[in-house]
Amino acid sequence: TAEVRRVLAGSGIRDGLCTVFVHHTSASLILCENADPDVRHDLDAFLRDLVPGDLPYFRHTIEGPDDMPAHIKAALSDVSLSIPVMAGRMVLGTWQGIYFCEFDGPRSRRVYFQMQNYAEAAAWAQRVIDADQFDPKIKPGLNDGRLPAKGFLQV
Known about the structure:
Order of helices and strands: HEEHHEEEE
Radius of gyration: 19 Å
Structural class: alpha+beta
Number of helices: 3
Helix content: 10-25%
Strand content: 15-25%
Largest sheet: 4 strands, antiparallel
Number of strands: 6
Shape: elongated
């Protein structure tokens, strides 16, 4: 998160969109709770249990037994994040932080940043909508205007 803030500060963007992208098949980016260092440990432990390296049905093993699990972990997460920027700051929740996830390293990796400045865009509208105020008419009858306790809401 600190590195993205540094790049953003150097860009001079006040209002816009910051896209962070890693173009590798065994690394990813996630947005997650960042206040407690145990979160990194727990995420790593969970993903190791979810996709262990010794599954007998893996066929892609030419680059080593940890290569296919690394591809699967990357496929289950994101290779890019787009974060709104307002007043020169990323719009992140109080506990949100950006994690670079290395699943097959250590290796040399390259992370790309693209800053879109809305002040230079021809037409731009900015709205912040609380999820409980989504218009149920977007998908009539889908959720009767209520947010689900768990699950997904199509908007």
